Amino acid sequence: MDTGTLNGIIIILLIVAFIGLTIWAYSKGRRAEFDEAARLPFADDPIVEHDTPPERAAENRHDKGGRKA
């Protein structure tokens, strides 16, 4: 088997894989998942409540805005 035959076999396998993935991705069973993923940018983010007061949050920061002496 020479290089040309091997390249031909690899190309055929890649084309079959591409067609298989395309059929899988556009199948009707995947439509609900894609519709849900398409709505994700419009979903509201949950509100995160921080239990750390602002004074303590400043203590925990690495850069407190002051100059290093």
From TrEMBL:
Sorted UniProt keywords: Membrane, Transmembrane, Transmembrane helix
Keyword Protease: no
Transmembrane parts of this sequence: 6-26
CDD domains: cbb3_Oxidase_CcoQ (cd01324)
InterPro entries named among the record's database cross-references: Cbb3-typ_cyt_oxidase_comp
Compositionally biased tracts (Basic and acidic residues): 47-63
Disordered as annotated region, ranges: 45-69
Top-level lineage group: Bacteria
Pfam families assigned: FixQ
Protein name in UniProt: Cytochrome c oxidase cbb3-type subunit 4
Source organism of this protein record: Halomonas caseinilytica
Source organism phylogeny: Bacteria, Pseudomonadati, Pseudomonadota, Gammaproteobacteria, Oceanospirillales
